[in-house]
Amino acid sequence: MFLQGKSKSTVGLDVGANSIKLVRLEHDKTGYSVSAIGIRELPPEAIVSDEIRDREAVIFNIQSLIDQTDPKIRDVVVSISGHSVITDKFTIDKKTGPETEQAILFETEQRAPFDVEDVSLDYHIIKTDDDINKMDVLLVAARKEYLKMYLDLIEDCGLRPVIVDDDAFAILNAYENNYEVDSTRVTALVNIGHDVTNVTYIAEGLFSATRDVSAGTRDIYDAVQKEFRLNPELASKAMKGDLADSIDQDMFKATVISASEELVSGIELAFSYFRSQTKIDAIDWIILSGGGALVPSLPEFLQSKINIPLELANPLRNIDYDPELFQYVQPEKIAPLLTVSVGLAMRKAR
Ligand SMILES: Nc1ncnc2c1ncn2[C@@H]1O[C@H](COP(=O)(O)OP(=O)(O)OP(=O)(O)O)[C@@H](O)[C@H]1O
Ligand SMILES: [Mg+2]
Fold first, then answer.
1. How does residue 7 score in pLDDT terms, banded at 50, 70 and 90?
2. Is there a contact between 90 and 139 (Cβ–Cβ < 8 Å)?
3. Closest Cα to atom 2, ligand 1: which residue?
4. Which of 17, 87, 142, 310 could form an SS bridge with 286, CB 3.0 to 4.6 Å?
């Protein structure tokens, strides 16, 4: 058969408040390789947090991104995040088969801050401990209304959402497939987006918890735009460090620092909450991703405030790619931005 040996591919589509990111990964026995990539920025207020304010503009931009990347793309893996999605971890007695599902549903009803009727549930068994006959379950619940609105949007772009994932799991997936997870160190994966920062913890080599901080780089973007009186296009350039020659760099740094107060204290608060909940005293290192990892001075400032070793994520670390696909940019320069889309494209969609 002529199809034999052909690798399978998955497209990850990450629709963020600031930009849409698309990555197609070929899956074969030896690993992954990138076969398509695209990024397209949205108008400033088209999406704010998880609220789609200008549906037409979002659809237009998704379609344009598909056209410019590969118009044949139909199947996509997407993710949802924000207020309409809840994740929770709990331990139950070990079960098998359909009993598992029943036990999880029962547990969910006991602890859910929402009506189980109104949500779509998905779960994942993190670990099973045969000695004590228990298992750790991770639950993801999404409000049905929100899920439907989001899926309708993707379908109205002419696409087929084959898997709906969650940002946190995409980030975790991208990390686990690119790095050797060190089970002796507690890792915080911090993904700074435009409106939301997702923090996901790995302890003893396994997923431990995840939390969204309602702050991102938007405050910095707004402050930079105002301080230097820039139009949206130039403000975006400044955020990428592309105006280094035309704006005062000390002033830029000072603007970034003063506008990231809420973001930094949100991350600090999330860390101290995690430590108190888990009785883990120290987070050993931070892997920073999202566009926030690329804003000049922000990673250094974050590290100096939080005082935990920090490394920029490279979700392409273990992935083959042709640098030509990236056109004008160096892949490692924008890699942190692609973390969610790479994690989504790692899912087996067929
Ligand atoms: N090379 C770059 N391309 C795009 N955005 C960049 C780049 N460098 C820095 N940024 C900044 O990163 C921020 C957006 O980050 P990101 O793309 O992770 O957010 P998002 O996914 O669109 O938003 P959210 O996850 O909150 O919905 C913007 O403020 C943008 O200015
Ligand atoms: Mg994002």
1. low
2. yes
3. 240
4. 310
Element (H or E) spanning 67, and its range? helix 55-69
> By three-state DSSP, how is residue 211 classified?
strand
Q: Specify if 147 maps to a domain.
A: no
Does the structure show a pLDDT above 70 at 116? yes
pLDDT at 6: 57
195 lines ligand 1 (CB under 6 A): yes
Taking the C-alpha atoms of residue 193 and residue 263, their distance in angstroms, rounded to an integer, is 10
- Domain with residue 123: its CATH number is 3.30.1490.300
161 lines ligand 1 (CB under 6 A): no
| Ligand 1 atom nearest 195 alpha carbon | 26
* Closest ligand to residue 329's CA: 1
CB-ligand 1 contact for 46 (6 Å cutoff): no
Question: pLDDT tens for residues 150-176?
Answer: 999 999 999 999 999 999 999 999 999
Which of 198, 233, 256 terminates a domain? The answer is 256
Whether residue 338 has pLDDT greater than 70:
yes
Token pair for residue 150? 């989001």
37 found inside a domain: no
Q: How far is CA 252 from CA 232, 263, 296, in A?
A: 16, 17, 9
* Domain end marker among 101, 124, 141: 141
Q: How far apart are CA 22 and CA 341, in angstroms?
A: 6
| Overall number of domains in the chain | 2
Could you read off the pLDDT of 166-214 as tens digits, one per residue?
Answer: 999 999 999 999 999 999 999 999 999 999 999 999 999 999 999 999 9
The reply to whether ligand 1 has any atom less than 6 angstroms from the CB of 210 is no
pTM score > 0.90 for this model? Answer: yes
Question: What is the domain range of residue 235?
Answer: 220-256
Nearest ligand 1 atom to alpha carbon 329 = 1
